[in-house]
Amino acid sequence: MPPGTHSWLEEVTGVLVTHEHPDHLDTAGIRWIQERGLPVWASRVDAPNLRRKGLTVHELDDGALGMAVERIPARHGRGLLSWLMGPVSGYDLAHPDEPSVYLTSDAVLTEERLEAVERLRPDVIIAPAGAANMGLGGDILFSVDELVTLVRRAPGEGPAGEAVRIARTECLL
Question: Which of 40, 44, 128, 138 has its CA 20 to 30 A from that of 65?
Fold first, then answer.
């Protein structure tokens, strides 16, 4: 992990789960959350199973955490592979006093993603990329070309009047 990660983790006050794959939330992560008594925010699809794992889960709906929240269903692959990967949620988070953030989640580029970016005009877009695939069924994350398309379709500035920033991540915690 990058220098300073452990001190940053000590400041965590809650956890947002976009989907339950173990590269996002594994047994060690669940234990870490439980030891700290942290609240978890997730979609109503994921919330029941996360509660069964012993977590304190709140559904991340509009108005949660004092901000506008929009859940944007995403596809983690295409066709049958997308169905096998299960439900994934992206989120647009817009607090009145902070830059807005769109977490695409693990996803491939679809018209729904582009429409969301154009409609919501987020200040920051966090988009996992790298064209990961499982050897069949195609990519399960934004390819480089899809990421370039997303960047080109992003508004020049978000609602806060600042230039939109795109953050490429390998994995979100």
Answer: 128
Q: Which CATH number fits domain 13-169: 3.90.226.10, 3.60.15.10, 2.30.40.10, 2.40.170.20?
A: 3.60.15.10
CA–CA distance, 157 with 51 (Å, rounded to integer): 38
Q: What tokens appear for 36 in the block? A: 């700290």
Closest CA relative to residue 73, chosen from 86, 63, 84, 64:
86
pLDDT one-digit tens code per residue, 10-64: 889 999 988 887 777 889 999 999 999 999 999 888 899 999 999 999 998 887 8
| Dist. CA 110–CA 65, nearest whole Å | 28
CA trace torsion 74, 164, 12, 1 (10° rounding): 90
Which among 10, 23, 14, 11 has a CA at the least distance from the CA of 106?
23
The pTM of the full predicted model, rounded to 2 decimals, is 0.78
Residue 39 host element (H or E)? strand 39-42
What's the pLDDT tens digit per position in 68-84?
A: 999 888 877 787 777 77
Neighbours of 5 (CB within 10 A): 10
Residue 15 near residue 40, CB atoms below 8 Å: yes
